[in-house]
Amino acid sequence: MVEFQSSVTDLVSEEPRVGLRPLKHSKSGKSLTQSLWLNNNVLNDLKDFNQVVSQLLEHPENLAWIDLSFNDLTSIDPILTTFFNLSVLYLHGNSIQSLGEVNKLAVLPRLRSLTLHGNPIEEEKGYRQYVLCTLPRITTFDFSGVTKADRTTAEVWKRMNIKPKKPRIKNAL
């Protein structure tokens, strides 16, 4: 019987799924991997994510791929923004409600591939354009390559829908 995890801390006692290549371990017993696949569970938050990742991985700072697809996440936890080597993030099939959640990911310098389809935010007008404006370094979004035409459309959409911040003028005393 497959057991679905509802808490990140449940991962510590869970055996990793067998993949095509055997998982390598350090002398301390921690995994030597740059990817973490936590898809198809019932996670609704990432409480203790950092501590658990540190327990499981020898070099958590090298984490480049996180798959959290098909869970019950309602927001993008800021803890994900602490993994600066993250280049692939799968969040499709969750319950993310607000398009503004995407803003949190703008601090990830290496993020190139992102999935968000199958979340309620996908139904919001300008979904694709908003994400591409917010994350201009993305090259693959929802498993589709980002084209020059996509970027042009996103820029036009941005000019029409996002009001520029007005410069604040300091009052001289």
Oligomer: single chain
Rg over CA atoms, rounded to whole Å, is 18 Å
The helix content, as a percent range, equals: 10-25%
Low-confidence stretches are none
Q: What does the average pLDDT come to?
A: 90
Number of strands: 6
What does the overall shape look like? elongated
Structural class: alpha/beta
Write down the secondary-structure element order. Answer: EHEEEHEEH
Biggest β-sheet: count, sense, barrel? 6 strands, mixed
N- to C-terminal distance? 72 Å
How many helical stretches?
3
Strand content: 5-15%
Order of neighbouring strands in the sheet with most strands: 1-2-3-4-5-6
Describe the structure.
The chain has 173 residues and is α/β, with parallel strands linked by helices. The protein is 17% helix and 9% strand. The protein contains 3 helices and 6 strands. The protein has a 6-stranded mixed beta sheet, with no helix packed on it. α2 packs across α3. The protein is elongated, with a radius of gyration of 18 Å. The mean pLDDT is 90.
Quick structural summary:
With 173 residues, the chain is α/β, with parallel strands linked by helices. The protein is 17% helix and 9% strand. It comes from Sciurus vulgaris.
